[in-house]
Fold this sequence. Notes:
The complex is a heterodimer.
Chain A: H1 5-16, H2 22-34, H3 36-54, H4 63-83, H5 95-122, H6 133-136, H7 194-230
Chain B: H1 5-10, H2 13-16, H3 25-33, H4 37-59, H5 62-78, H6 89-110, H7 137-155, H8 159-169, H9 175-182, H10 186-208, H11 211-229
Amino acid sequence: MNMRCTKARRYLSQAMDEQLPPAVTRQLDEHLDACRECRDFREDLALGRRLLGATEPSLSGNFDWRLQLKLNQALQKAAGETAYPWLEEKPRGRGWAGNFTTAAAFGLAAVLALAMFIGPQGRVMPDDAGRYAGFETSRQVAGGVSDRLPLNRGALAPLSAPRGIQRSVSGSFGLGDFSPNAAFVLDSGWSGNHLKDLATIQELKLRNQRLNNQLYQYQQQISILRRQLDRPDSNGLDLGR
Amino acid sequence: MNPSRDEHRHGSPSAARFDLVETRDEDLIVMVQDGNRKAFDELAARYKNRLFSFILRMVKEPVLAEELTQETLIRVYIHAGKYREIAKFSTWVFTIATNLVRNKMRQRSRRPQLLSLNPAPADDEIPLDPADPVADPSEEIQRRELALVINEATAAIPEKYRIPFLLREVEQLSYEEIQQVTGLKLGTVRSRINRARNRFRQLIKPLLKDETLLAELEMIEARVAEQKDNPS
Lengths: 241, 232
């Protein structure tokens, strides 16, 4: 009996899982033949395993439907988040890093806005009739979308310009190349009127919401079509042609 | 049976004979990735008891264990796309379960529960446990009492030893799979299982000499074997 009991007991655990090399297994067997305590130890370990196996808990009877219910809720939540991204819950406890990022983003946005509006506005000059030609048409910027607000008082001269001059900025918030249909184009821009602009923002939000709803519906249709394709008896899609 | 993803998508004639029960876990999860809910139901049926058994022995509370089992299965469905067949499906599932259990235990250790202040669970939170019409009630009570003692003993094993121990003894994962689930080295897995077994033996030692318990154990094992032979 060359092997010590401490070593033999360590090997016993591995022997239970058939993890020991044959040579060591032989040595262990020799030790067990000669050592009653280690044989008892082995029996205890085996009994422990049997006890664990015999006392497996069972699930409650309503587990399955509760699972289906929770899964449906989770899927609905996931779908809702896709459709209405702005309704997502704000992460809590972002700490100073989050606040700092927000503050920095606001600061940067303010600087950019100033840079955008002050520069070009400052160059608007009245024509011979004292009219501000830039405001009569539209303040087109690159890409065709004019969403700039005249911020500095100097550039707000049209406010005091004759009434006949249309001050509205006729930029469009359309979908550009993505919109095949003119109905999608929102033909309004910043008016300079606070309430009116808020209404525009509201309308844009609604449009965004509708588009997201449409997107969600398309996603649903895709998933239905995919399910049709998955069906064993499916022979491809009937596209109605 | 090892159907390709294209077969599922395009519904080849062989797919008509497809039998989910005989399909490998790894093929089922590929079907779940394509949005097949029945494949998910089959996976849930295969794993719910194993997961519950493992989780209950980790957290000790049946209601919480059921919740975490459901959460694990929901994550399997929602994150099915993240599964890659570089590991066995069972390894992936138990990794999710282990992480959930660890998080929950960490939360509990930070915020120890005060039993007197906890509201009673709502009716719909208490899992119904309908009586098994076949089982002998006295035998069932014995089994439950024994299970209670064993669960107490299991819960007394330190967490870091208990996870590999249960994955091995209850879930019968291989050492390599346990290594993947826990992220431990193989030698560490081996030594932790060994330590947990020794600790478990110490904890249940008073029971081991009890003749009645051994008789009960044999009866339970016989009944379990009978149920396996005749599932109806």
